[in-house]
């Protein structure tokens, strides 16, 4: 990676990290899930420079957020998986916005709902809220909220990324 590329990834990582602090619960019944617009920055970079750079932004901003605020390894790993999957799928199929949006939003939402089936019971054990069985029972009550949250989050991210990229894509020599 060239020095210029490293600098750009660093700048975009800093922007994404800052945006992670804009946490907003979208749905009251799954208020433990919070929307932040940080993947928008990663997707814009990925579309214009490559998937690896976008995923690198997701990784760096998640590591920074872990140390600055979160301290929650499970949540940060889940955030990285969601962000990296979304950015990779959206970028890979970006030329066809319809296919790109369906695959990135739908694929990431389905993946994260499935992963939450494993991590919610794990949270119950780690946080001493109860047993894994209690956690899975809780997941069964809220799985649809997790799915809806992810569809909303990644739909918002996709639409805003596309709109912003129309304005700034020319800085990269695209769109």
What's the arrangement of secondary structure elements?
Layout: H1 3-19, E1 24-25, E2 34-35, H2 38-49, H3 51-70, H4 73-92, H5 97-126, H6 132-168
Antiparallel strand pairs: 1-2
Question: What do these coordinates show?
Answer:
This protein has 175 residues and is mainly α. It has one domain: Arp2/3 complex 21 kDa subunit ARPC3. Helices cover 78% and strands 2% of the residues. The protein has six helices and two strands, in the order H-E-E-H-H-H-H-H. It has helices at 3-19, 38-49, 51-70, 73-92, 97-126, 132-168, and strands at 24-25, 34-35. The protein has a two-stranded antiparallel ribbon with strand order 1-2. Strand 1 (24-25) and strand 2 form a beta hairpin. Helix 2 packs parallel to helix 4 (73-92), helix 2 (38-49) crosses helix 6 and helix 4 (73-92) packs antiparallel against helix 5. The longest helix is centred in the C-terminal third of the chain and has 37 residues, at 132-168.
What is the global morphology? globular
How far is it from the N-terminal to the C-terminal residue, by CA? 24 Å
Question: How many helical stretches?
Answer: 6
CATH class: Mainly Alpha
Rg over CA atoms, rounded to whole Å, is 16 Å
Helix content: over 70%
CATH topology, what is it called? Answer: Arp2/3 complex 21 kDa subunit ARPC3
Number of domains: 1
Q: What's the number of extended β-strand segments?
A: 2
Which class do the helix and strand fractions yield? mainly alpha
Q: In percent, how much strand structure appears in the residues?
A: under 5%
Oligomeric description of these chains: single chain
**What's the pLDDT, averaged over the residues?**
93
């Amino acid at each position: 990676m060239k020095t210029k590329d490293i600098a750009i990834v660093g700048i975009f990582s800093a922007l994404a990290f800052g945006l992670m602090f804009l946490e907003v619960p979208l749905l009251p019944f799954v208020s433990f899930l919070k929307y932040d617009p940080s993947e928008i920055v990663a997707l814009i970079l990925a579309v214009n420079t490559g998937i690896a750079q976008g995923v690198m932004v997701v990784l760096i901003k998640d590591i920074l957020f872990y140390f600055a605020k979160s301290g929650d390894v499970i949540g940060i790993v889940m955030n990285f998986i969601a962000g990296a999957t979304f950015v990779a799928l959206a970028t890979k199929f970006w030329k066809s916005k319809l296919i790109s949006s369906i695959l990135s939003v739908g694929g990431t939402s389905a993946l994260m709902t499935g992963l939450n089936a494993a991590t919610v019971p794990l949270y119950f054990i780690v946080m001493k809220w109860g047993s894994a069985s209690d956690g899975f029972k809780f997941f069964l009550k809220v799985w649809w909220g997790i799915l809806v949250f992810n569809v909303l989050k990644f739909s918002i991210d996709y639409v805003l990324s596309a709109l912003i990229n129309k304005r700034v894509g020319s800085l990269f020599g695209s769109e």
